[in-house]
Write a structure and sequence with these properties.
By secondary structure, this protein is α/β, with parallel strands linked by helices. The protein has seven helices and 17 strands. Strands 2-1-17-16-14-3-12-13-15 form a nine-stranded mixed β-sheet.
Length: 344
Amino acid sequence: MRTKDFSYHLPKHLIAQQPKERRTDSRLLVMDRFDGRTVHTQFRQFHRYLRPGDVLVLNDTAVIPARLLGEKEGTGAVVEVLLLREVRPDEWECLVGNARKVKLGTPLVFGDGALRMRCTHVGKEGLRTFSLHYEGSLDEILEHLGDMPLPPYIHETLEDPERYQTVYRREKGSAAAPTAGLHFTEDYLRQIEETGVDAVFLTLHVGLGTFRPVKVERVEEHHMHEEYYSVPETTAARINRARREGGRVVAVGTTSVRTLETVADADGFIRPGSGSSDLFIYPGYPFRAVDAMLTNFHLPESTLLMMVSAFAGRKHVLSVYEEAIEKEYRFYSFGDAMFLTDKL
């Protein structure tokens, strides 16, 4: 399977640079994942495509101000660092700009010494591991020194950083937002639950596994980077009850899909627990746990587009993407949403 089989052309003006004024103002493209039929509506109508007994699974990760600008101690050379994941206490795997400047043992300094980092491991493609040295709370230091790590295709300044967070985030640790969840408000989630649909939460800290580009010609040769996940016992129990009683498991976002499929057994029942997932889902993957998926529109040749194509068929998905482009949907993180369901 070729990576270029998942390519499409997107006019630049359709890349959303700002979120809608209200979260639920986004458009929603509903697609029957089996026959490709579509309906065009507004996100505030999403609840009409859910059924009593369904369970809505949301990723409660929170984005941290993970982008740091510092300098090499002694030389003053500017270095940009993106914190990806904590591999051990106060030791973080990072993505480094101008990584050739950073070798094993290289010391970096941020904010006049409020945070110091030393390279402890040199990886491939700009990956480095650093030990972190600071006094007090790292959360507070990052709030003071770090920036929200918006994707590189967003060129405008985000006036309200809260709009790159879901309203239900709880667990800090992501380097990017689980963007399908950005469309929900607290009021709308309550409205959904009043229809007989339960909302439950898991955690997957979004990192390089989600947004790393595919650089190989053959899809099968791509290796997913590990991302931390956690599934509470209460979440697993509610999902498993829905499966036994005929309700659907509706995953909000590709990160929820990856987590559920990582912890599902052969019959689609969920095992609680935590760990790291490097599951790569592309066409041919046999889904076990997820019945329907809410997602945004994804970049060409990305692992996320490959996952959606595995769920609903590559030809159907690329055809619907062309339909969305023709109707000028807004794409990517601050764009519109798509609901892949089993029956329209």
